[in-house]
Amino acid sequence: MTRFFVDPSELAGAGLTLTGENAKHAKVLRLKAGEEVLVCDGAGGECLCRVVDYADGAVELEILERREASTEAAVRVSVYMAFPKADKLEHVIQKATELGAYEIVAFPAARCVSRPDEKSLKKKLERWQKIAASAAEQSGRGRIPEVRVVASYAAALEQAARCDKALMFYENEHATTLRMALESSPFESVSLLTGPEGGLEEREVEQARNAGLQVCTLGSRILRCETAPLCALSAVMYAAGEF
Amino acid sequence: MTRFFVDPSELAGAGLTLTGENAKHAKVLRLKAGEEVLVCDGAGGECLCRVVDYADGAVELEILERREASTEAAVRVSVYMAFPKADKLEHVIQKATELGAYEIVAFPAARCVSRPDEKSLKKKLERWQKIAASAAEQSGRGRIPEVRVVASYAAALEQAARCDKALMFYENEHATTLRMALESSPFESVSLLTGPEGGLEEREVEQARNAGLQVCTLGSRILRCETAPLCALSAVMYAAGEF
Questions:
Q1: Minimal Cβ distance to A221: which of B71, B218, B221
Q2: Among A75, A217, A233, B79, which is disulfide-ready with A240 (CB 3.0 to 4.6 Å)?
Q3: Cβ partners under 8 Å of residue A243, min gap 6
């Protein structure tokens, strides 16, 4: 079923009108009066709606049923990724959204080559949030994951550590597997922290341990910085019983 | 440790000489006499070597130890992917190699938009195999996964069905999870079959069932055709105890 995202305030009444990009999209899809569509508030709530009228670039809908989105994962996974080069972050935002991530958080690390300045950051965040919105729509999610940036490595650790499972992946860790970390106790929220192209420095790994993160391996092969978070996210979703 | 791939025949004697691309790569890395490197036969065997001499664009090595590569997964996973558009197959070849796939097999399906003709296929296969070789080297693998093409959908099913677990992923399957399929019995080999951009047709899914494949879900979100095989591969590696 076709899915539109609107501001939660628009879902307050008994009906709503799709405008702007949503109306254009409806036109492309040639939606007709009587057809049913899903309208999501982007925060996990959705409404089953019926097209009432369609004219002058606006689509009038009647709300049939309000419900919770059924496509959101029960486990909340936060993907913490050190700023990578160029378009890799965009790739991870798109894929992590498809795979059901709760949020995607970029942070600076010692070996990051790319670090957007304050000025370009606002524009970039807008662009990243749009990528997440588009991927959420395509994958049929009811919630758009938030894309955030934290200003320091220490702040990223502090925030990541608040999850039930706060995990860092490091290629020189061989003893603790992701499975050990996940199976030791039940969890509802997980943070997955991975390094930049050049990897994390040993002192950064120590800093993470001190902040309460558990350092794990993702196997004996070296994964690229854009592969590691998606591999870990897929495995956590599997381990949490999503598929 | 630096890793070079050579033809297995070159590892027959007590020493060997790196030439061509390998020698160029050694030069870039400024390898010195006395340094240790790994030379892999690309089929899971590797030799720990020491640089003896380095001159005139060739590197002479002494073999110190012959062993099995320690970075190969115990489980053999074959990734069967319906031909996708453009560069998506290249993406999957690179990532699946990093993630430890045993082989990557492309096949035609009803809704495939792209289907390389016989003539362009040979060149493409060479290019794809190079991508796998490069990803194997970078991720520290001892084996280069083979990239193959099968001529028909029926042949793909027949080959995929030979694995201990032969699994197809389909967005309209909701009852059987990947976990159910994997946990029902022990396995040493797994095939993961996924569809093209437009998805698999219902009759193709039936055909797969009849050929002995088990049809599973990868969760309630719709994954893009390049995301599904990598998500499934990551989960299988996790389930098989790789990390």
A1: B71
A2: A75
A3: A237, B177, B178, B179, B216, B217, B218, B219, B235
pLDDT bracket for residue B57 (50, 70, 90): confident
Chain A residues in contact with B95 (beta carbon < 8 A): 227
Residue A12 confidence class, pLDDT cut points 50, 70, 90 = confident
Confidence (pLDDT) at B118? 84
Please name the member of B100, B216, B227 whose beta carbon is closest to the beta carbon of A219. Answer: B100
Nearest Cα residue in chain B from A226: B95
Alpha-carbon gap, residue B7 to B10, rounded angstroms? 6
- Evaluate whether B240 touches A179 at the Cβ level (below 8 Å): no
Expressed as residue numbers, the domain containing B17 is 3-68
Same domain flag for B15 and B117 = no
Is any Cβ of chain B less than 8 angstroms from the Cβ of A168?
no
Q: Are residues A48 and A122 in the same domain?
A: no
Same domain, B107 and B58: no
Q: For residue B128, how far is the Cα from the chain centroid?
A: 10
Residue B60 and residue B84 share a domain: no
DSSP classification of residue B145: P
Percent of the residues in chain A that have a pLDDT greater than 90, as a whole number: 81
Q: Do A237 and B235 touch (CB under 8 A)?
A: yes
Share of chain B above pLDDT 90, in %: 81
Helix H or strand E encompassing A191: strand A189-194
* A26-40, A85-99, B97-111, B195-209: range with lowest mean pLDDT: A26-40
Q: Which of B1, B75, B231 to mutate to test the interface with A (most CBs of A within 10 A)?
A: B231
Do residue A58 and residue A102 come from a single domain?
no
**Overall number of domains in chain B:** 2
CATH code for position B146: 3.40.1280.10
Provide the ipTM.
Answer: 0.92
Residues B54 and B100 in one domain: no
* B90 shares a domain with B61: no
Under the banding of pLDDT at 50, 70 and 90, the label for residue A32 is confident
Cα A184 to Cα A188: distance, rounded to the nearest angstrom: 13
